[in-house]
Design a protein that fits this description.
The protein is built from 21 helices and 15 strands. The protein has 502 residues and is of the alpha/beta class. Among the domains are: 145 residues, Rossmann fold (3-Layer(aba) Sandwich); 185 residues, Alpha-Beta Horseshoe (pyruvate-formate lyase- activating enzyme). A 7-stranded mixed beta sheet has the order 2-1-3-4-5-6-7, with helices on both faces. The model has no long low-confidence stretch (mean pLDDT 89).
Amino acid sequence: MTKFLFIQHKNENIGVEYLSASLKENNYPVELLFFAYTTNDKIENETIREKINTFKPDIICFSPFTFQYPWSVSKTNFIKKEFPNLFILFGGVHVNSVPNAVMEDKCIDGIIIGEADKTIVEFAKNYEEGDISLTPSLWYRKEGKIVRNPMSFLEQDLDKLPFPDKDIFYNSPLSPRSRLFAYTALGSRGCPFACTYCSNNVFSRLYAGQKRLRYRSPENFVDELEQNKKKFKYKRIEFADDVLAIDVPRLRKLMELYKQKVDVPFACFFHPKLVSEEVVTLLKNGGCTWFKLGVQSANEEYRKKFLCRFETNESILEVSRLSRKYGLKFSFDHILHLPGETKEHLIEAVNFYNQCRPTIINFWDLMYLPATDIIKYGLEYKIISESDLPKINNGTHELSKLNEVPWNLNTGNKINYSAFMLLFILISITPSFFIKYLMKIKFYNISFQIPNIILIFFKVISKFRAEQGYLYLSSVIGEFFRGCEVLKRSVTKYQNLLFNSR
């Protein structure tokens, strides 16, 4: 049987879990090499070489997001040099965004476009039979040219799919974060919205004419959660659905079953346009302890024109009111350095968020994801240029990488972003009158940059105050395991040297 080895960097990937489940259901051997924590190229490459030599896979699979793509290509180049006959197959969000750019990397033998639960199984069968040309959604190289097969249709009945193979990530020796902190669950696929900065903006075009938003039945979804609760003993669930509470009758049934059979705290994404007291009550009674709302900008007109978001500030205020009424913690997401953003927009955001009083405000710089509509505004406002697009398309541009501290403190447009960052943080840990005072004295006009260490200090305080300190504990544990892996490698190397010298 054809053997598949998935190689994943940093994050649990639900897509990989579903592909593994589909392959295993059809008796194809699958293993995962998960680099949950950064080590270095040499250690990673040695690990890959050892894994390939012991498992002896036929197909090497990568499913990167854009920020993971450069790393994945680097590992692919190493594999091709060491094992030139292995077939390298790519899929996932980045591939779906810019498939032509991906196929420019000659180390990649093929890509699968779109959801691949069934097509990867067809690929496996066709690979064994020696003719992959029959595989739908597959792009591959043949005689120096790229063959682009037509896309398969989206599976509409998600209950037909096997439960995601959580074992490959949760039983990985380098995956303590998953086991200790939360179980990631997905009860639907697709998003009804197409925000200009989000990968769903790309998928709305990729799947044009098809029904993108699909649900698992409450019974099917809860069966997975109940089964894996017994297996992994998780204490909390993170629902990864783009928006959990859209179909209210389904939500009623889901929360009823969830409370009966799972009954652990959960967090979910929410959209202000879908707010109602009934929905908030259902989620609260079902076990929800945290709402996550993407606001991104507090200016309604800006949101409509630049972000393709049509909720009103009134609806955001209503979500905030209901969350406080029912004792639910909630967070806002805000994007900085948006094209056309002004100081007045940020002043409006501080005043509005101080009125809403979210538990946490998460902020980061805009990431220019490949093929998203926000790119045209970046070009219009000369934040990026046409010459930047190739780097955006291969994930190497500074503005398309994953945002991590130290935060970008660029003041090119005469906005002191560090001051606004501090104000966003202080909203969640100080009284509203204090924020009003800082705004009255125009604190945001200070002439110096607030050091990252100060911003991080207050951010940590806000996270612990919001009972999210486990997020930092996760990072500490990650560094511990990374250190253990480096030490293990060093000891093994030293032992080998001693043995060889005798």
